[in-house]
Amino acid sequence: MLKNYNKKPYNFEKNHNNKFKKKIFELTIHHKKNCDIYKNIVNFLDIKKSKYVTLADVPFIPTRLFKDVDLLSVKKDKIVKTLLSSGTSNDGLSRIYLDKNNSINQIRALSDILSTLIGNERVPMIIVDKNPINNSRKSFNARVAAIYGFSIFGKNIFYLLDSNNKINYEGLKNFLLTNSKKKLLIFGFTSFIYEYLVLKFKNDNKKYDLSNSIILHGGGWKKLEDKKVSNKKFKNLLFQKLKVSKVVNYYGTVEQTGSIFLECEKCGNLKTSIYSDIIIRDNNFKNLSANKTGIIQLISVLPSSYPGHSILTEDLGMIIHEGNCQGNLGGKCFKVLGRVKKAEIRGCSDTGHF
Amino acid sequence: MIQDIFNKPFDIKNLKIIRKDPFNELVIEFLDEFSEKLKSDKNIYNFPDLMYLMFWTRKKELLKYKNLILLNELRVGRGLAFHICPSNVPTNFFYSFIFGLLSGNSNIIKMPSIHSEQKKIILNILISLFKLKKFKEIKETNNFIEYDHNLNDKFTSEISLFCDVRIVWGSDQTINKIAKLTKSQRAIDLFFPDRYSITSINLCEYSKLSENKKKMLANRFFYDAYSMNQNGCNSPHFLFWVGKKNKKQQKNFWDHLNSIIEKKFNFKDIEIIEKYLSLLNTIIKNKKIEKYIKYKNNIYVIDASNIKSKIEDIRGLNGIFFEKNILNLGNLKNFISKKCQTMSYFGFHKKELEIFVYNNNIEGIDRMVPIGESLNIDLNWDGFDVIKTLSRIVTLK
Fold first, then answer.
1. Lowest mean pLDDT among A311-320, A343-352, B159-168, B381-390
2. How far off is chain B from A23, nearest CA to CA, in Å?
3. What is the DSSP letter of A193?
4. Which residues of A touch B222 (CB under 8 A)?
5. pLDDT, tens digit, for every residue of B147-189?
6. Which of B118, B269, B297 sits opposite A347 (nearest CB)?
7. CA A151, CA A226: separation in Å to the nearest integer?
8. pLDDT by residue (tens digit) across B58-72?
9. Do A354 and B219 lie within an 8 Å CB cutoff?
10. Out of A69, A188, B69, B254, which residue is the most buried by the measure of CB atoms under 10 Å away?
11. Residue B48 and residue A44: Cβ atoms within 8 Å?
12. How many angstroms separate the CA of residue A236 from the nearest CA in chain B?
């Protein structure tokens, strides 16, 4: 569906918002036409509305619905790839169905976004994890999905951990020798980068110098928050230990891969690209303005083979800049504050006396 | 290793089992003192369900039940009752314990592992009561434990062979699993499977109420519906308006309910997400549902006029109600299945309700109570006389 790739994912044209909005309206119509379940839902929710006016008028699907039903806007035989979310098959996994077109578009968008970090060529890559090929297929997790997703941008890939989750120093030494003087991409989950590169990694004689590399990490800050490690502290520790000066956080969901959000160089928050947008909703689904905490809704122009272009996540967040951050002019910068708190038993307490 | 609430290892082989007469003095004294301790805890004023429990366990109330139930025969507890309690109602495990205790049994209560303030408060009181010498017998013959029965099948099987009563409070899945485990030949099962509840309002009587009385009725419905996330077996899902359709009066009811929610209730983010998800899943599964009225995310009132029969699997969550108009009570017949537990009502005489039950060969409904009393527990539960079921008769001639 997307014919041209901009190669400049943070160049927002003057009328970007309008164009983006129109594209999302078109996608909504497209998915209504091609996915009966989606059509039923939208028709039910829209009963009073005749036309969408703003982007916030477009209905959104809660991410958990992708676990409960199969949502696809193409015939089953056109599916080339099925992405699965975290969890065990007992809990139910989100199933995201990609046809050839959607799959290519996701890779193109991700490539555009990553090229702003690593340039247009593939780079040698260290993955701070173990090789997922050895994983049991019974449990899928976001780590494995992310590794597969990002590893296509790696020229040579080295997995830092062996099958026992121990750091392979020998392998690392050889990898660094083979790829000396080259720019490296180090990828891993935030908690893994912290555990293995900050805490466990032994670099007392400063043998390992990773100053020519970029660390790209995602997956959530919860573990670090529990240990009172802020983003700033995290970066300082990585610099002290390994001389890495470029550490970039990313945020993404399996329901909208490709159009991920990278850390903004200027303000340190996450930034939208021309492929995606964010709306913050309160408990009544009202569209909240900046600096107010609410539930994150993500909108992306990429999902064409499944109705995932407008989704309600289970993450809380807050918009910080709306178009005026020097690091992302025309786009938004936002914070992710963590997962929505899990359900706790209510009981009669909250309804008061009668 | 399974531990009890005192963090002592729990050993099946060293269980002391005692069979006493139902409503015996010691047990009534124990529960009365429990009630006193609850009363003196300032915290319980935030928990209507604990306040109700405090009221219910008073000696006066228990003696009322003793006189009502009229046990003419010589009865003793069946022996050891093993209870598997649900996670959706915080105080349920203690009511289950009361069922077993009042009927003269020794009990093993498998509590839900989910945390709740109510559970914490109750257990603290139990621990302090168990320290008293006079309740030594109760301490020694009753056990409160927690374990994951999916991981500890062996333990559940062992107890099944050994106990005299198995009480299981849902889910249907759990009940099926326990039912398959061999029990001893003289043992009995008391299963409380998945149930749902409804509300019926006489529309003509409703419209006669003053605005203030309407507000109070909505407040009582709010209590029934919004506690337990609408997840209890006695939480209402369908609201049947009985009589000639009156859109204005119906809207008036929901308007009142909405004002109450705006004033008193705070949804958690996750409850909103789950409510919205439930709405979408309901629409997907029921093509006949086409319209709804939305009071922001406080209430979703779904028009169920196209639903002509079976309603047992159509459920709300955190404030989703299915509204239907019927001309008279008798029309309810088509909608009531075995799964229907409670019908809360307004505007009907007891006689009308009696006639409704006798004339319609209804498959379900074990309780008919005024709106606001849906969540109250009783010694007649799910159609069972609990005391008589959990004790045995010793014929003396």
1. A343-352
2. 24
3. I
4. 351, 354
5. 876 777 888 999 999 899 999 998 888 899 999 999 999 999 9
6. B118
7. 29
8. 999 999 999 888 778
9. yes
10. A188
11. no
12. 34
> Would you state the pLDDT for residue A3?
39
Look at A340 and B269 and tell me if their CB atoms are within 8 Å: yes
- Tell whether the model's pLDDT for residue A124 goes beyond 60: yes
- Output the pLDDT for position B375: 83
Written as six digits, the tokens of A131 are: 């090789």
Interchain proximity B269–A61, CB inside 8 Å: no
Q: What is the pLDDT of residues A273-322, one digit of tens each?
A: 999 999 999 999 999 999 999 999 999 999 999 999 999 999 999 999 99
* Chain A residue numbers touching B266 (CB-CB < 8 A): 350
pLDDT bin (cut points 50, 70, 90) of residue A351 is: low
Identify whether the C-beta of residue A71 lies closer than 8 Å to the C-beta of residue A94. no
Q: What is the DSSP string of B256-283?
A: HHHHHHHHH----HHHHHHHHHHHHHHH
| E strands in A112-212 | 123-130, 139-140, 154-161, 184-189
| DSSP alpha helix (H) spans, chain B | 25-40, 48-56, 59-69, 92-102, 117-130, 136-141, 153-162, 172-180, 203-208, 211-226, 247-264, 269-285, 350-359, 386-390
Q: Residue holding tokens 């107890």?
A: B159
Measure the N-to-C terminal CA separation of chain B; round to a whole number of Å. 47
Nearest 5°: phi and psi at A342?
A: -65, 160
Is residue B230 within 8 Å of residue B89, measured between CB atoms? no
Residue with tokens 């009570």: B329
Give how far A132 is from chain B: nearest CA, Å: 28
Q: Does the CB of A62 have a partner CB in chain B at under 8 Å? A: yes
Position A8 pLDDT exceeds 80: yes
Q: For residue B115, which residues of chain A lie inside 8 Å, CB to CB?
A: 344-345
Contacts of A44 in chain B (CB under 8 A): 283, 289-292
CB contact, 8 Å: B136 with chain A?
A: no
Contact B266 A285 (CB under 8 A): no
Q: How confident is the model at residue A353 (pLDDT cuts 50, 70, 90)?
A: very low
Longest dimension (CA), chain A: 74
Task: Please name the helix (run of DSSP H) or strand (run of DSSP E) that holds residue A222, with its range, or none.
Answer: helix A222-226
The two tokens of residue B246 are 């009156």
| Interface contacts (A, B; CB < 8 Å) | 119
Q: Dihedral of CA A100/A105/A110/A112: which sign?
A: positive
| Segment A45-104, tens digit of pLDDT | 986 666 899 999 999 999 999 999 999 999 999 999 888 886 555 567 889 999 999 999
Q: Do B272 and A295 touch (CB under 8 A)?
A: yes
How close B114 gets to chain A, by Cα (Å)? 8
- Top pLDDT among A142 and A262 is at A262
DSSP code of residue A134: G
The b/e string for A199-211 (b: 16+ C-beta within 10 A; e otherwise) is: eebeeeeeebebe
Would you call B292 and A316 a contact, using CB atoms and an 8 Å cutoff? Answer: no
In B298-357, the residues whose Cβ lies within 8 Å of chain A are 298
Amino acid letter at B229?
Answer: N
- Chain A 259-318, CB below 8 Å of chain B: which residues? 283-285, 295, 312, 314, 316
Rg (CA), chain A: 21
pTM score, whole prediction: 0.89
Contact B89 A347 (CB under 8 A): yes
The pLDDT value recorded for residue A2 is 33
Name the one residue in this structure whose structure tokens are 């709740």.
Answer: B116
DSSP A346: -
- Which pLDDT does position A120 carry in this prediction? 84
Residue B114 in contact with partner chain A when CB distance is under 8 A: yes
How close B354 comes to chain A (CA, Å)? 28
Torsions phi, psi for B352 (to 5 deg): -60, -40
- The verdict on a CB contact (< 8 Å) between B270 and A340 is yes
